[in-house]
């Protein structure tokens, strides 16, 4: 019972939680639109167009920007990805090995090559290796050097991704394979690794996108005109024409590859989440 002598407490007036969230979201939209409008109004579009959007200069880049520069970029990326995947698999298995020196070597490799910038790896391959081994040529010429440089960097990241994928496979899979008479090596190759790759396919594809951009470091190895990738090709033409349009065109060519790959990664991640549910 309420004491009649106790005054009634006034009801609290204010916005509901959902209303506050809606107002906060609306304020963020308004702030974003205002920032975009301010940028659009303040930018000097005429100067930007003159420096980055000269159609006559862009037209001169075709078809070489596709048949030469983009082709080389794709080849450099794929060669580095394949080498990195193979080496990353070896490092991952060493990381999971019961042999102590293997685990220590794999751990040191991963920490070093994940910690060093890719630029230093390219310089090391282009300068230090010829000095250390005079007269020794890396097979494949420039493509071999790029595959080695990109692969060494990618392998450190892929090794940890592959290791995580292998450990994500239920242990019962290995025990079931062993009960059927599979040797540990055969069970790993035939049962565990295929399941692990289905798990880690999205992050591996994302690594491919990163390698595609890192291929621009090939210029530090010294390349001929026929070996130029997109960034080198765009910079050379920008210097020749005293205009930045070639750099913009090269950037758009990167997007022609990275945007579809990004879409593929998101689709694979979505399917993986649906499979878990």
From TrEMBL:
Residues 70-265 form the ABC transmembrane type-1 domain. InterPro entries: AA_ABC_transptr_permease_3TM (IPR010065), ArtM/GltK/GlnP/TcyL/YhdX-like (IPR043429), MetI-like (IPR000515), MetI-like_sf (IPR035906). Gene3D superfamilies: MetI-like (1.10.3720.10). This is Amino acid ABC transporter permease. It is found in: Cell membrane. Keywords: Amino-acid transport, Cell membrane, Membrane, Transmembrane, Transmembrane helix, Transport. Belongs to the binding-protein-dependent transport system permease family. HisMQ subfamily. PROSITE patterns: ABC_TM1. Signal peptide: none annotated. It is a multi-pass membrane protein. The lineage of its organism: Bacteria, Bacillati, Actinomycetota, Actinomycetes, Kitasatosporales. The chain crosses the membrane at residues 26-46, 74-94, 115-136, 247-265.
């Amino acid at each position: 019972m309420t004491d009649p002598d106790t005054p009634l407490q006034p009801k609290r007036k204010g916005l509901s939680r959902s209303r506050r969230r809606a107002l906060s979201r609306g304020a963020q939209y308004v702030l974003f639109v205002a920032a975009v409008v301010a940028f659009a109004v303040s930018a000097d579009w005429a100067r930007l167009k003159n420096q980055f959007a000269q159609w006559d200069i862009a037209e001169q880049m075709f078809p070489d920007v596709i048949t030469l520069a983009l082709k080389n970029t794709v080849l450099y990326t794929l060669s580095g990805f394949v080498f990195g995947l193979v080496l990353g698999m070896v490092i991952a298995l060493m990381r999971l090995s019961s042999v102590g020196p293997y685990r220590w070597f794999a751990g040191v490799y991963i920490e070093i090559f994940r910690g060093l910038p890719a630029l230093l790896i390219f310089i090391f391959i282009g300068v230090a290796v010829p000095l250390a081994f005079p007269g020794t040529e890396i097979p494949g010429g420039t493509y071999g050097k790029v595959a080695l440089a990109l692969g060494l960097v990618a392998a450190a990241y892929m090794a940890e991704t592959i290791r995580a994928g292998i450990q994500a496979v239920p242990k019962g899979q290995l025990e079931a394979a062993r009960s059927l008479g599979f040797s540990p090596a055969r069970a790993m190759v035939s049962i565990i690794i295929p399941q692990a790759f289905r798990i880690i396919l999205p992050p591996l594809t994302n690594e491919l996108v990163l390698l595609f951009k890192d291929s621009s470091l090939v210029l530090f190895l010294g390349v001929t005109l026929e070996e130029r990738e997109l960034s080198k090709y765009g910079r050379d033409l920008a210097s020749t024409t005293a205009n930045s349009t070639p750099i913009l065109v090269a950037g758009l060519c990167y997007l022609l590859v990275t945007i579809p790959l990004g879409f593929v990664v998101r689709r694979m991640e979505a399917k993986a989440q649906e499979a878990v549910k």
